[in-house]
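Collaborator request, handled under Task 6.
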Amino acid sequence: MLEINLKQLEAFVTTAEYASFTKAAEALYLTQSTVSAHINALEEILQMRLIQRGARRRVQLTPEGKQAYNMAKEIINRCRAMENLSSSIEQCQLAVGASSVPAQYLLPELMSGFLEKNPDSRYVLQKGDSDRIHQLLKMEEVRIGFVGAALDRDKHHYHVVTGDRLVLITANTENYRKQKRSGVTGRQLLHQPMILREESSGTRKAMESYLVRCGMSSRSLNLVAQIDNTEAIKSSVSRGIGVSVVSELTVREEVESGKLLSFDLDSGGVFRNIYLVWRKDITLTSVEKKFVEYVLSMSEE
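Structure tokens returned to the collaborator:
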């Protein structure tokens, strides 16, 4: 079993290079006695004197010390190279969080385009509602987020990536088809049995803001279910359990296939923003800056 450790080798190499216990201790942020103890331990393990000690002269290596120095220096250099490799990998990694809509309908295309231009990069994605993504940003478990609600402008940078239309969806029944043909809006169907997203979702917050503008509240709705999964909501609506207000992005396929019907809430449409977000008190890495610049350039297009 090896008894030599890296602290002993680092103390020895640094002392040899500075030719001084005092300067080596300063460079390593250790006490001089600790540096001496590491070297003494190394000499004891190797059973040889590595350094010639003298009160009035610079530290010098013994012949055995010179051989040991070359070997120890190579080991230290390799360890530093490993640290740099780890740092390099970290610098190329994106820790991204996204709420439901952007995670499924926006981010895949953005990441595909970015990785094509930056093939050495990679990303780790965590999903949750808008509240959850802000919590992950706070804990630095993600560094960049995509959310449907700007919850804390004092502490975060928010940039609009795209607009998102809110629509009311229903089952594709003759009754609802007739109402759609007659020009009924989603607002006129808010009295129907309603399925809502969880309170912390960006979609739910945007809908509640709309209700306030209409002089209503979610408490006035005929709530039959609250579901935190968009796919489950779409399935429930298609089975006639109720109607729901969702992002148009999430139901395009079902509307086109005739599985669901979609109603604009108002004649002019009701919109909310999808934001790119990161904390104001962090410094973005080079790859994070590239990603932010790429996302913003795509949003301008």
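The cover message to the collaborator said: "The chain has twelve helices and eleven strands. Residues 63-91 form the longest helix (29 residues). Please let us know whether this matches your experimental observations."
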